[in-house]
Amino acid sequence: MKTESKLEKILEKGKFAVTGECGPPKGANAEVIKRKAKIIKDYVDAVNVTDNQTSIVRLSSIASCAILKQEGLEPIMQMVTRDRNRIAIQSDIFGAYALGIRNILCLTGDHQTFGNHPQSKNVFDMDSIHLIQTVKMMRDEGKILSGDEIDGELKMFIGAASNPFADPFEFRVVRLAKKVKAGCDFIQTQCIYDLNKFEEFMKMVRDRGLDKKVHILAGVTPLKSVGMAKYMKEKVAGIDIPDELIDRMKGVPKEKRADEGIKICVETIKRLKEIEGVAGVHIMAIEWEEKVPRIVEEAGLLPRPSL
Amino acid sequence: MVVAEQKDFEEIKNMVFPHKKILVVGCGTCVTICFAGGEKEVGILSALLRIAAKKEKHELKIVEATIERQCDKEFVEELKDKLDGIEAILSLGCGAGVQTIAETFTNIPIYPGVNTKFVGRVEEQGVWSERCTGCGDCLLDKTGGICPIARCAKSLLNGPCGGSKNGKCEINPDIDCAWQLIYDRLKELGQLDKLEEIIPIKDWSTSRDGGPRKIVREDLKL
Description:
Structural class of chain A: alpha/beta
Strand order of the largest sheet of chain B: 3-2-4-5
Strand content of chain A: 5-15%
Oligomer: heterodimer
Order of helices and strands of chain B: EHEHHEHEHEEEHEEH
């Protein structure tokens, strides 16, 4: 084991991992985190906390992760390079580790034009691949980027994202390979709706032997409505939803569409489980955490392993 | 070239109207080529200011001048004999031009008439786009002659990010994804293997982040 991460233990044992996601509130209300924690606690192995996703100011990822930790969950701290330079990034990683956070997801982050402060200055001192290299250097060499030695150890389990559906399609696997080369231990993918395309992507992943070098958790997001599906397809960068799925949602009465969205999600997970090289699933139930227990249960992923 | 765009007329008017006699100075180099602050624009802007002054019954005398290069003190000094009674100077040069005038004539207020936007090129008649941020350590050899610092919204060194769709950037469908362009170009050159390598974290100390920059060439000094 490289770290004390519970997620690492599960993945290294070859168990099919389940991670969830917790979006922090737009304020300092810790109760929101605690409430979400209670709902998903026994249904996921670890929980991602987003870092001001879509550039909207929220309770910080580090603080939210610390709260989740207190509540007995295993947090995965998302960190973006949009808002911090290498000084702040490394300092915050020290802080996170000191607070007991053992997993980090290294991201570049959404551009600030999407958020509520489009007038802000962005940083992008480094990109996500450099962030992976930085955390790996801290962990494996005990050094920060300047070469200075770290006081104490910093054993973070390092994750990164992969979007199989962005362009150019044939380059997506190359970028994943670069992340693996940089030193990431696990990957969480963008939400998958187009399973055929994802299978094609996974074949390229296996052809390069990447599934043997990194744990790949396939991302899913249950659709609440036809409106949400259309919005995600058209407005959210890097998400593709096949028309058949939208038609399927449209095909049921309005009051049953949320239920249909969950059924689609469960079916997707069942198919993902069968794909060679998929080590787990990452359920991003956006502001719909209360549905996670049902999805996990219906997908046959209970009970979660206790360590 | 340096690409600039004339400021909003109201903003310019508010800057110069407290004065009774001003000098409007154009520059014969970049801002002439991008139609923001050459001799022609000096003439048009001065005429508009005169009309506005007349309408508002405001006394305003305007002297017009366009010099070869506002970023060169030698040319700026040519303005000396036009300064009689001048209360303020409105420069249509880029930021470097405005500041060269300010450094040359320290006792006269100077106002910028244009917003200096970027170092770029003409894409087509009437369209300019950014190509260089002057990061001080050119990496175009690694990226097929297309700059990700200037042209990727996140200045990614190992793109494209997950927001690249149909060759366009996630922030605006009118913006090309720089990394798609890099990918296409390297593919054409048979150099896609270059993209397998991680471009290391950048040393930004050569850019503006290292503080205001200066080049001293001893071999050229007199």
